[in-house]
Write a structure and sequence with these properties.
The chain is of the alpha/beta class. Helix 5 (167-176) packs antiparallel against helix 10 (252-263) and helix 19 (493-509) packs antiparallel against helix 24. The termini are far apart. The protein is globular and about 80 Å long. Helix 1 links the parallel strand 3 (23-28) and strand 4 (60-65). The chain is built from 26 helices and 19 strands.
Length: 661
């Protein structure tokens, strides 16, 4: 590198290095931030960079990151918070659209050298470059996730992505917010190549000077981006959106479709649409959900906590086996203990299916399987940083196990239980060091549910609080969201769900079909109806939870009748629904939008849904008032990420507070 020129020294966000071949290496290292985000000042400085390069054009321009945390994570989210008027929204869109159009039109070749996450506006910047290389990294992701915030890619992504990867792949990424890894990005043609770290700079230098044609789709995939086939693609995509979101709770996907079909991705041509989306309640609420998620992530990053390297799991049932499999998937060494190898074998088989689905690469699948070690004798207890107890919900059995393992554990190791019903205060009475017993409550299925409740006692001393923080760090380390809660029946999520499911069953007692109750709640925005949820967790489990949390309430008749017949839900292949291949079989005729025939809340799906949502909100409020969770924001976060509570509402407490204000 012959010359170094730093632009905007006051902020110091960009740095230009010119080498002997006449290449300009432009590095983004946003000042005062752990990640690169495209804030207003960063964008203004980039415009200044392009001004300077107009005066002395380089042989080629390579844009890269100066952060270890990735390329660019997108726009500065904080700048979306106050877009309450059309002028501000339009200015935000214009800033990025105009700048990236200018970048795309420069006369010299440009290349985005992507390492780590490249998301949102970061990918739109990369798409505006002539070439894109990505460094091979299994943890990296590329995508346009704006739809997850209730907004749209307004800086050229809707225009350029379909031309590069084809309409079908582009719409899939933009309408779902789905992220892809570097290898898939290369297969799709989103990047020109996926290169090893050791040849990163040499590959970038060679590629930007190669004179290769710009990558774009051809043949029938190109035709889908033009009339009249564009109209057909839009119609098909709109039908899919209507089937997934029939009441239009999420307007952003439809806006993306309209901008692509009618304006070639240029949102400046649709100012009314821009204002309606960026200033909508949905965007505001989904931005809130994003911030709640970031807060939970921060719970999993306690300062100074050492990482967990070895986990020992006792109990190879569905929960214990899946917890062990997930930890091994995340790179930890795991020993899995049960009474014999035959009990462990099903867990290993499920792990193999999970790794095949997630990793796809044969070598990585085998490496993950090698990290998951059957351990009938329990030798891993002595080596583990963390021992997970995941046996049956039996107090005496758990305490007997604790007596055995405590004497063999390292002094600095944590003992955690996945109990969903027993109190830590009772469980830990047999321990010599009770302060290090923590609850870590995963939800089923482990691989799909992002939330983990980290349970501490109400009277915990400093050692116990340190153990809670370490447990939160472990949860964050394995890619889950840690929600600290206090020991109480049902903790937060189950304490709210059990009364909700029982209230839904009472509507069935009143004559409304299970499918109609479920349809009302999925239309409201829940990922699964409460009756199907009860079938999924097990009707016997739902009854036991109801008796524990509401001992004075009479159980619903429909629940008792099915349990008496041995119809326990999915696990017995019959409950409120018949179950085939793990899916509920519903009579479509029973899920009609008009349910019931008489007066009252049961006769109107919207009123039925509002009443059941109120039950959830009231139960969450009770747990908050009881001190189970620290504040209302964390309570809402727990319900959104633990149950899938309609994200567009901002959470049960937030939603109902706004309704009553």
């Amino acid at each position: 590198m012959a010359t170094v020129q730093t632009l905007s020294a006051a902020a110091g966000n960009w740095r230009i290095d010119r080498d002997g071949q006449g290449l300009a290496w432009l590095t983004l290292d946003r000042a005062g931030s752990a990640v690169n985000a495209l804030s207003a000042d960063v964008m203004a400085e980039l415009a200044a960079v392009l001004d300077s390069l107009d005066q002395a054009p380089p042989a080629g321009l390579i844009i890269r990151s100066g952060k270890d945390t990735g390329f660019i994570v997108g726009a500065d989210i904080d700048e979306f918070a106050d877009l309450g008027e059309g002028a501000a929204a339009q200015a935000l869109v214009a800033r990025g659209w105009t700048l990236f159009e200018r970048l795309a039109a420069v006369p010299y070749p440009t290349l985005a050298l992507i390492q780590g996450h490249c998301l949102g506006g970061g990918l739109e910047l990369a798409l505006a470059c002539r070439y894109r290389l990505v460094v091979e990294d299994a943890s990296a992701a590329l995508g346009l996730p704006e739809v997850m915030l209730g907004i749209f890619p307004g800086w050229g992504g809707i225009k350029r992505l379909p031309r590069v990867v084809g309409v079908q792949a582009a719409l899939d990424m933009m309408l779902t917010g789905r992220r892809i890894d570097p290898r898939r990005a290369a297969r799709l043609g989103l990047v020109d190549a996926c290169v090893p770290l050791r040849v990163r700079d040499a590959a970038a230098r060679q590629w930007v000077l190669s004179g290769k044609p710009v990558r774009k789709v051809s043949g029938w995939r190109a035709w889908l981006n033009a009339w009249p086939l564009k109209r057909l693609v839009r119609w098909q995509a709109a039908r899919q959106l209507d089937s997934k979101d029939p009441l239009g709770h999420y307007p952003a996907p439809r806006a993306i479709l309209a901008l692509w079909a009618e304006h070639d991705g240029n949102a400046l041509q649709a100012p009314d649409l821009v204002e309606s989306i960026l200033s909508s309640d949905t965007a505001r609420n989904l931005l809130r959900v994003y911030r709640l998620q970031e807060r939970l992530k921060n719970q999993g990053k306690p300062d100074g906590m050492r990482a967990v390297h070895h986990v020992h799991v006792v109990g190879a049932g569905v929960m214990g086996g899946d917890i062990a499999a997930w930890c091994a998937l995340q790179g930890l060494s795991v020993t899995l203990q049960d009474q014999n190898v035959e009990r462990i074998a099903p867990a290993l088989a499920r792990a193999g299916k999970l790794y095949t689905r997630r990793l796809k690469d044969r070598r990585r699948i085998q490496a993950a399987l090698d990290r998951l070690i059957p351990d009938v004798e329990g030798h891993g207890v002595a080596r583990a940083d963390l021992v997970v107890e995941a046996i049956s919900e039996n107090l005496e059995a758990k305490q007997a196990l604790y007596r055995q393992v405590e004497a063999r554990m390292r002094p600095d190791a944590l003992l955690v239980t996945n109990t969903s019903s027993l109190s830590l205060e009772t469980l830990r009475t047999v321990l010599q060091r009770p302060q290090r017993l923590i609850g870590i409550h995963f939800f089923n299925p482990v691989a799909r549910m992002p939330l983990v409740e980290v349970v501490g006692t109400r009277d915990g001393d400093a050692e116990h609080q340190d153990a809670v923080a370490r447990a939160c760090g472990f949860v964050g380390q394995i890619g889950k969201l840690a929600l600290p809660v206090r020991s109480a029946p049902g903790f937060l999520v189950n304490a709210a769900l059990a009364p909700y499911m029982l209230a839904a069953m009472r509507h069935v007692d009143a004559g409304i079909s299970p499918a109609a109750v479920d349809a009302a709640m999925t239309d409201f925005g829940m990922p699964m109806g409460p009756i199907e949820l009860a079938d999924t967790v097990g009707l016997d489990v739902a009854l036991a939870a109801g008796r524990q949390l509401a001992p004075d309430a009479e159980p619903p008749r429909c629940l008792l009748q099915r349990i008496e017949r041995g119809h326990l839900g999915r696990k017995s292949e019959r409950g409120f629904y018949a179950w085939r291949d793990g899916k509920a079989v519903k009579d479509a005729g029973h899920a009609q939008r008009a349910v019931g025939s008489g007066a009252g809340p049961g006769s109107d799906p919207a009123l039925l849904a509002a009443g059941l949502a109120r039950v959830l909100a009231d139960q969450v409020r009770l747990q908050l008032e009881a001190g189970v969770v620290e504040d209302a924001d964390l309570a809402d976060a727990g319900m959104i990420f633990g149950t899938g509570y309609a994200p567009f509402t901002g959470g049960p407490l937030y939603h109902h507070n706004r309704l009553s204000s």
